[in-house]
Design brief:
The protein is mainly α. The protein folds into 2 domains: about 110 residues; about 140 residues, no CATH class. This is RAB11 family-interacting protein 3 (Class II).
Length: about 300
C-alpha cells in the first residue's frame, strides 16, 4: 500500500542519513573504505527498495487473489446452500416415495395374504370334497367290479350270439340264394310258358277268325245242301273246342301267375322271418320293426320292380 511504501522509503532515508553521520563522525584519514561502504549501503538501499517494491506488488496481488477467493468462496457457499436445500427437498421426496412404496407394499402384502387365505380355504374345501368322493368311490369299487364282471359276461354272451347270428345269417343267405335261383328258374319257365301261351292264343285267335269267316261264308251258302250243313256243324264244333282251349290256357296262365305270386310271397316271408331272427337283439329292433311295418303288397311291388329292372 502507499503508506507502507512511504515508511519503507523513510526507513531507507534514515538509514542513509545515519550512515552518512556515522561516516562523518568516524572520518578516517583513508577515504577509500568509507566510499566503498557508502556505495555498498547505497546498493543495499536500492536492493531493499526493489525488494520492498516487489513485496508491495506481491501484497497487492495477494490482496486481489484474496478478494477473488473470497468472492469464489461466497459463490461456493451460496451454491452449497442451494445444493443443501435441493438435497433436503430430494430427501423429503425420497422419504415420501419410500412411505408410499411402503404403504403400497403393505397393501399388496395384505391383498396377497387375503388371496392366499381364500385360496387355502378353497383348496381345503376341494381336498375335503375329493376325500369324500374318494371314499364314495372306494365304497362303490365292489359294485363297479361286480358290474364289470356282469358286463364282461354279457359281452361274451353277445359275442356268442353274434357268432350264432352270423352262422344263421350265412344259412339264411344260402337259403335266400337257393330260393332266388329257384325263383329265377320258375320265372324263366313262367316266361317261356307265357310266351308259348301267347303264341297258342294267337294261333287260336287266327283260327277263330278263320272259322268266323268260314261261318259267314257258310251262312251265305245256307240252303245249298246237306254237305253245307255238315260243314257248319263241324265249324261250330271246332269253334267250341277252340273257345274251351282258350279258356283252359287262360286258366293255366292264371295258375302259373298264382304260383309265381306264391313263390314271391314265400321269399318275402322267409326274408322277413330271417331279418327278424337276425335283428332280434336290442341294437337291431328298429330295422326289424321297419321291415315288419312294410306291407306284403309293397314288398311284392318292390320285388317285381327289381325283377323288371334285372330282366
Amino acid at each position: 500500500s502507499p503508506a507502507k511504501r512511504l515508511s519503507s522509503r523513510k526507513v531507507a532515508r534514515n538509514l542513509h542519513q545515519s550512515a552518512a553521520l556515522t561516516m562523518d563522525t568516524l572520518q578516517d584519514p583513508a577515504p577509500d573504505p568509507v566510499e566503498c561502504m557508502e556505495e555498498d549501503i547505497a546498493d543495499k538501499v536500492v536492493f531493499l527498495e526493489k525488494r520492498v517494491s516487489e513485496l508491495e506488488k506481491d501484497t497487492a496481488a495477494n490482496g486481489e487473489q484474496h478478494s477473488r477467493l473470497r468472492q469464489e468462496n461466497l459463490q461456493l457457499v451460496h451454491r452449497a446452500n442451494a445444493l443443501e436445500e435441493q438435497l433436503k427437498e430430494q430427501e423429503l421426496r425420497a422419504c415420501e416415495v419410500a412411505l408410499e412404496e411402503a404403504r403400497r407394499h403393505r397393501e399388496l402384502v395384505c391383498k396377497m395374504e387375503r388371496e392366499r387365505s381364500i385360496e387355502v380355504e378353497s383348496l381345503q374345501a376341494r381336498l375335503q370334497q375329493l376325500d369324500e368322493e374318494n371314499g364314495e368311490l372306494r365304497s362303490c369299487t365292489p359294485c363297479l367290479k361286480a358290474n364289470i364282471e356282469r358286463l364282461e359276461e354279457e359281452k361274451q354272451k353277445l359275442l356268442d350270439e353274434i357268432e350264432e347270428l352270423s352262422l344263421r345269417l350265412s344259412d339264411e343267405q344260402e337259403n335266400r340264394r337257393k330260393l332266388g335261383d329257384r325263383l329265377s328258374h320258375e320265372r324263366h319257365q313262367f316266361q317261356r310258358d307265357k310266351e308259348a301261351t301267347q303264341e297258342l292264343i294267337e294261333d287260336l285267335r287266327k283260327q277263330l277268325e278263320h272259322l268266323q269267316l268260314f261261318k259267314l261264308e257258310a251262312e251265305q251258302r245256307r240252303g245249298r245242301g246237306h254237305s253245307v250243313g255238315l260243314q257248319e256243324y263241324n265249324s261250330r264244333t271246332r269253334e267250341s273246342e277252340l273257345e274251351q282251349e282258350v279258356r283252359r290256357l287262360k286258366q293255366d296262365n292264371r295258375t302259373l301267375k298264382e304260383q309265381n305270386d306264391e313263390l314271391n310271397g314265400q321269399i318275402i316271408n322267409l326274408s322277413i322271418q330271417g331279418a327278424k331272427n337276425l335283428f332280434s337283439t336290442s341294437f337291431s329292433e328298429s330295422l326289424a320293426a321297419e321291415i315288419s311295418s312294410v306291407s306284403r303288397d309293397e314288398l311284392m311291388d318292390a320285388i317285381q320292380k327289381q325283377e323288371e329292372i334285372n330282366f
